[in-house]
Design a protein that fits this description.
Blueprint lengths: L1 H7 L22 H15 L5 E7 L1 E2 L11 E2 L6 H19 L4 E9 L7 H11 L4 E12 L6 H9 L2 E9 L3 H6 L6 H14 L3 E8 L6 H12 L5 E6 L22 H17 L3 E3 L3 E3 L4 H8 L3 E3 L2 E3 L6 E4 L4 E3 L3 E5 L3 H9 L5 E6 L2 H16 L1 E3 L10 H12 L3 E3 L3 E4 L7 H6 L3 H5 L12
Parallel strand pairs: 1-4, 1-13, 2-3, 4-5, 5-6, 6-7, 7-8
Antiparallel strand pairs: 8-10, 9-10, 11-12, 14-15, 15-16, 17-19, 18-19
Helix pairs in contact: 3-4, 3-11, 4-5, 5-7, 8-9
């Protein structure tokens, strides 16, 4: 395994989309094309599978240095109401464009820190959304809660408007690591909010744990997972710290590269943590995710309905995902679009009755074929090849797959690619074998985090 880590520990995408954002063709993209593909996809699927909504709530009271998300650091809570007003105006622009009432199958509040907002404002946001939309059958609403500021009132207010899933960012319980990432939160805080959620009636409580953090050791990871096991969250994200200081601003420059575990140390942290989770019944779901058999994510894996998009892994697929808020990304299945990142510009465009996107990508036929295979590999660890897909017969892809087969990462048959147990930690690398954009244009600068 050591030699494989050395061989495959290269910068690579996490494939929440294909093509990945750095390879979007912004020259052939336009707002009109985006709107046209969105309406087409909405008309095709709204009545049958509904749509997904992601709402980005960017405010945080302090900077967590492990985070690469778009955020605005402030302690001024008077920013809440104006931002929500703008999000609801943006939503009205989409509703006017789509015509029919959207059937919302999935809704996720991300950030930033969604629980920066008061319970009353969060409830007002959701009620505002559903003045012009309906909840689809089997809907699933979720939000990211900060253990230090999520109150019982937050949990109750969101439960009352349909939320049944919450995920808490744990990262690591070692105080030295917490200080390095500027996220001090004792186990007692996590235990409290987990217990509250279950008492109120949430059916899925998730914890996010990161390995590969500055100053983190194998013992730290073990200690964090042992404490996590005492709470038995329904699902876990156990993923590698993405060291991307060139993207995240100054936050990740607060420690040295030498403070980070090596690639081999990170792989040991992952393998040991994965075994500890398996020992108590967690099942590996796609890449870096684990769930108990009773959780909807595990059921989706076995039913073949597991999906992956800009929200991560989801229990069901929708063709349409609308992203609301500054920096949010939307997906019409035929194209992607991203909102402007500046809060001031975002507000100005929405107030001017303009859907606030600034870049995107219209998928080509080749993109759509490759996207399908990458989704299958990320969600099911296997994909079936269509003999008519000539793009998959290129020497570049074939040579990469044969090399990975010889390394024991996958099995090739006449029409199937199946990721082996040994290959699961390297699924990002396997997906990279299909990435024609990477082949055609090697990045001149670092774009992605390391795959290991």
């Amino acid at each position: 395994m050591c030699s494989l880590v050395q061989k495959y520990n290269v910068p690579g995408p996490r494939y929440t989309s294909y093509p990945t954002v750095p390879y979007w063709d912004i020259n052939t993209f336009s707002g009109k094309k985006w709107e046209s593909t969105l309406v087409k996809s909405f008309d095709e699927t709204n009545a049958t599978e509904g749509i997904s909504l992601y709402i980005h709530l960017p405010f945080c009271e302090s900077m967590c240095t492990f985070c690469g998300c778009h955020k605005r650091i402030t302690k001024r809570h008077e920013v809440e109401s104006p931002y929500i007003t703008t999000v609801l105006k943006e939503w009205s622009l989409y509703c006017n464009l789509l015509g029919a009432r959207p059937q919302v199958k999935e809704l996720h509040l991300g950030g930033g820190t969604p629980t920066f907002f008061s319970p009353e404002n969060l409830q007002g946001l959701i009620n505002g959304i559903f003045k012009s939309a309906d909840k689809a059958d089997g809907y699933e609403f979720s939000f990211e809660g900060h253990p230090n500021n999520t109150t019982k009132e937050h949990l109750q207010a969101l439960f009352d408007v349909g939320f049944r899933r919450v995920s808490y960012g744990v990262q690591d319980y070692n105080e030295k690591v917490q200080k390095a990432i500027h996220r001090i939160q004792p186990f007692e805080n996590v235990e409290k909010v987990t217990t509250w959620a279950r008492e109120i009636g949430y059916t899925s409580v998730g914890h996010d744990i990161i390995f590969g953090l500055p100053h983190q050791t194998l013992e730290d990871v073990e200690n964090t997972i042992l404490k996590t096991k005492s709470l038995m969250p329904d699902r876990l994200a156990f993923y590698s710290y993405a060291h991307v200081p060139w993207l995240s601003g100054n936050g990740q420059r607060g420690y040295k590269d030498a403070d980070l575990p090596s690639g081999e140390e990170k792989r040991k942290q992952y393998e040991h943590g994965k075994q500890l989770l398996a020992d108590v019944g967690y099942e590996e779901i796609g890449m870096d995710h684990f769930a108990l058999p009773t959780d909807s994510l595990s059921k989706a894996l076995h039913s073949g309905s597991l999906h992956r998009n800009f929200m991560g892994y989801t229990a069901s697929k929708t063709q349409v995902m609308v992203g609301l808020g500054a920096s949010s990304i939307s997906d019409s299945w035929y194209s992607f679009a991203q909102n402007v990142k500046s809060l001031e510009e975002y507000q100005h465009l929405v107030e001017s009755a303009i859907i606030p996107i600034y870049r995107g990508h219209i998928l080509t036929d080749e993109d759509s074929i490759i996207r399908k295979h990458i989704l299958n590999l990320m969600c099911q660890f296997r994909t079936i090849l269509n003999p008519n897909d000539t793009i998959l017969k290129t020497d570049l892809i074939g040579a990469k797959l044969e090399e990975m087969e010889s390394d024991g990462l996958l099995k090739l048959s006449s029409n199937t690619i199946e990721v082996t147990e040994k290959g699961r930690p390297f699924v990002r690398n396997i997906c990279m074998a299909f990435d024609m954009h990477l082949y055609r244009k090697e990045p001149e600068t670092r774009l992605f985090s390391m795959t290991v």
